[in-house]
Amino acid sequence: MLTEDQKKYFDTEGFLKLPGFFSAQACSEMRDWAHGQVESLDGAALKSVFSTLNQTRSTDAYFLESGDQVRFFLEEDALDADGALTVAPERAVNKIGHAQHDLAPTVSNFCRTPQMAAVAEDLGLKTPHLLQSMLIFKQPHIGGEVVCHQDATFLYTEPVSVIGFWVALETATVENGCLYALPGGHKMGLKSRFRRTGDGSVTMDTLDPRPWPEGGYDDPYVPLEAEVGTLVVLHGLLPHKSAPNRSDRSRLAFTLHVVEGEAAYPQDNWLIRPQGMPPRGFEVPPAT
Ligand code: FE2
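A: This is the predicted complex of the input protein with fe (ii) ion.
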């Protein structure tokens, strides 16, 4: 699937951009699925999501128990100080996560393709485990910033193996909050680990206190602008981030995080699948 030059580029830079990887039709079906999910939240369900998220302690549980669910998370600016919505409900959702790739056939079919499996294999995954997916809306005007991070901080294996598959379902530009990456930054080592503490909470361990290189959204960081259908593959140690979206256009993206099934997966990772729902590979399950 990937050429030797593409594999070499990924090894050197820590990312790879593949325009036109997904068809316009496939992306359109995913947009419809994402918007349909948000629109199908009835008033009562929305209220429960919003009131749940108004309580910090419940927010932790709502997030920590979402590894085998399809759940809705809000943009920080979607609520005012009194907890009331500042925008229409369909404009309030920051993301949907984190198991729709196993629970929703549309999402499973989108990401479980021979082409995706081939990219994963070409980048060294022997037994890929599709662990986590997200639909990230990056809403107009209020789409929040995602600060610089490495995906291995949140999905840690020994050795580090996570690869991020990021797909533009809408055009992503510097105006509406495209990804930014630090080329070659995957060689700097892991900076931190986000893990469960055992008392129902989570913590961030600092492994390397040196700050990220300065530069904000300029050199040495580079924007990864992407047309609809572009796949961006990210090494699990690559520092990346995205700016707030202050434009009139949303920036819907799909992400899938895949780890090596043969690597050790510490049980203090935030995302723990229940016994009956182990992570699966790229094989499409038989229709039921
Ligand atoms: Fe990320």
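The first strand starts at residue 15 and ends at 18. The longest helix spans residues 24-40.
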